[in-house]
């Protein structure tokens, strides 16, 4: 069984995914084209149930914090392939141009050592970094060593450049408050632009808090790197160690919870996160809030502490696309031993993440490998979600989902879709642990008012103690408008697909249970 530790090199993910591919798997261009066609052809004009509960007086009063979210009828995944079959979102050229512009604005390159920094793991280098950074338009080089600081604030047009993971380390000072960021941008309110952080390990130094149970201070604080209200940003070649909240956070000035159909002002946009490692995080590894045009690639998140939550109720995800996020692309990432591998969601009083596209992901021993939900909009007595729309996931893997101490009563699932409308899963390979007790639970659950959901090219094996491979739940909170095609299971399943009897619209095509003597190429 494949295992990945906290030092896994995520630049190997693409190769691992290619190695995991079954002989019957489609090529990358065909995979993407199939997902594109399924997504486009299944696009249906959505009409919101009329409601007269919107409080315009409150909205106007709070409008300096939030903006209204309108429904967009999205019909494309916006993935593109270059001549070498590298995959990118179509807007990446905008970010590439801004990267060149960042270097055009740089006036000097400095070394933090020349400003008095000492990388001995003891000296407080806060003032040395402040002097080296100045007012920006600078590359600040950080040699090998461990540099203690009480936090670094980056102005616009700044590059912070280390010698690489495990070579250059920034460590938060023992006297830093629980609310402190290790690195963030200088002006969360007015915003900043064109900032890059590259090539270092980032130690939030959680040990300084001792046995304190909760490790985060609230809102978007207590993380290793937070971009809040940043336009054009890069987090690359970084390792984040035991942050109180998040390893890497792409955020707005503040998180707001002022209702579904609203989004915080001051969100970040055009941010690329690449070759990131993170572990020991109190909440999520990589997370986004109220931000747009985010590209997360070649990254690995694992082994959260969950300590920002009440013990046993830690919704600690490897990658979480959260409240108010939209236009987010994920490519060739991996997660292991988290509550959720990839969670696309929102809280009940915030807009759901929307227009999220995943290509290539490995989830190992996560409790819920892929979990898409809008909390508080699931039951028939709940208001219909105004914003939970548009997700695709292509060529993804779920390996041995497991129970977890993080969320003690949560049963393992490879995929759960709840409350979302217009979801396409094309190419999901699921490999269980045949010796594990899955207690007759389903492997895939489509439930809680999920609508217009397509599952295509699904392969599942090694779940001797599970219930049905795919369960579409009926009842008062039933899913509807579900299409299941090309579902293949091994002989360990007595029932491949279980569709609730009161589901009004469902289509099931080409479901196969392989005989016991049928060998497959995946181990």
Word description of this protein:
Helix content is 10%, strand content 40%. By secondary structure, it is mainly beta. The protein has one domain: Single-stranded right-handed beta-helix, Pectin lyase-like (Pectate Lyase C-like). The termini are close together. 54% of the residues are buried. The C terminus is likely disordered. Pfam families: Pect-lyase_RHGA_epim. InterPro entries: Pectin_lyas_fold (IPR012334), Pectin_lyase_fold/virulence (IPR011050), RHGA/B-epi-like_pectate_lyase (IPR024535). It comes from Fictibacillus phosphorivorans. This is Pectate lyase.
> Termini distance?
7 Å
CATH-scheme architecture: 3 Solenoid
**How would you sum up the major sheet?**
18 strands, parallel
The number of distinct helices, counting runs of at least 4 residues, comes to: 5
Q: CATH H level: which superfamily?
A: Single-stranded right-handed beta-helix, Pectin lyase-like
Total of domains: 1
Radius of gyration over C-alpha positions, nearest whole angstrom: 23 Å
The CATH class assignment is Mainly Beta
Secondary structure category: mainly beta
Protein name: Pectate lyase
Keywords: Lyase
Pfam families: Pect-lyase_RHGA_epim (PF12708)
InterPro entries: Pectin_lyas_fold, Pectin_lyase_fold/virulence, RHGA/B-epi-like_pectate_lyase
Summarize the structure.
InterPro entries: Pectin_lyas_fold, Pectin_lyase_fold/virulence, RHGA/B-epi-like_pectate_lyase. The chain has 523 residues and is mainly beta. It has helices at residues 13-20, 28-41, 56-62, 92-105, 126-133; strands spanning 66-68, 79-81, 87-89, 108-111, 120-124, 138-141, 145-149, 152-154, 158-161, 168-172, 183-185, 192-203, 225-228, 230-241, 248-251, 262-264, 269-279, 286-288, 292-297, 300-302, 317-321, 326-336, 340-346, 354-364, 368-374, 389-399, 413-418, 421-431, 444-447, 451-461, 470-472, 480-489, 497-499, 506-513.
